[in-house]
Design a protein that fits this description.
By secondary structure, the chain is of the alpha/beta class. The chain has 15 helices and 16 strands. It is 40% helix and 14% strand.
Length: 443
Amino acid sequence: PARHGLAPPARHGLARHGSPPARHPAGHGPAVTARRALVLTGSLGMGHHVVTEVVAGSLARMDVQVEVLDCMSLLGRAGARAGDWVFRRLMDVPTLYDGLHFAHLRPGSALAGAMDRAATGRLVPALRRHLQAEPAELVVAAFATGASAIAKLGPPGTRPTTVALCTDVTPHRLWVQPGVDLFLVTSSAAAAAVRRYHPTARVAVVPPPLRPAFHRPPSRAEARAELGIAPDARCALLMGGGWGLGPLAAGARALAAAGVDVLAVAGSNRSALRALAVAARAEPRIHPLGFTDRVAALMAAADVVVTTPGATTCSEARAVGRPMVLLDVVPGHGRDNVQHELSLGGADVSDPEPERLAASVLAALERAGAGTSRSAGTRPGAGTRPGAGTGPGPATGETFEAAFAAALAAAGAPVAHGSGCLPSMAGEHSGTPPVGAAAKEAD
């Protein structure tokens, strides 16, 4: 779960983007000839919605009319509630979810297959009916069950172009099916994970999808003035993802007792927000927030980002140039994401015990030079960037939108990039040269 920066989406139903479609002046920006696209998200965890928002916005700026559909809504009200309840209970018992992820979802066991059939058995017919009523040339899934469903829509030529976008470092078996035309991932490790299940898959490695605010966040001084944080204060942003996981109130109290200002985001976790509000009444260094659209400013104001290891959140922190202390509280794919972020550098990891968490954060603040004049007014991307150079994003000059368009064109989707069409390579799966400068096909 990583969606702490936006109001929660509608649980059921459809969002529309690009009506009328955005237009680019001749020769400026990508142009897409597909008239309509469907983007599939899912309400199990909130990180999918951030990715979906960026994908939909990118397509809308490419002159595509976009619909965003929650896969859970296609399961029906009872199915959606049951799926949400089961997922939350699994997350509440980390060893159980670890066992499901590593012993079943990753290798694709009989149990994983049964789970997939139970979900897609209802989802695929509903998706076909929707596409019959609302035809689309392109379907993009940013949710594992959605990716499995679009792979079952039918053979090429009878269905839209299908794309699966996974930002986790190790897509599991349900993500990867032969009926998907293009897999988009954000690391070479993830590309290798895709080819574990589908050796001839077309895979493109693209920069992480970032919301517009993270392409040019405010300076530290600007953000602190906006949020009321002293220029010379040591400041940590403490987040538990959209569900407010981890020791938010206890961790905030431990950090505040050590003299650190804490911007604490509880997401949709109302009980965590109430606990933070109680803690803030006793300790004014604690600044509690629920859902907020100011995450870029919160990251810019902080000296360190303390967060669960959601791929979207980590990419955003790197774009802003802040070091991270990762809370190892997300089982399954979260364990993989922790190791990946540590390998990139600019990140440490801590268990959720408040005193040890505080010690890890204080050490990270010391390394970052927090509270010195050096850190007071720096604009992310120009000067002090503790997390810079550790992953794709604005610092590399690449954007997800350009890479997305290039990858679609290279896969034979109806896409033209700039003033001329990129060559179609439909049907070629390996040994292909890199696609432009913005997207590369994984070796």
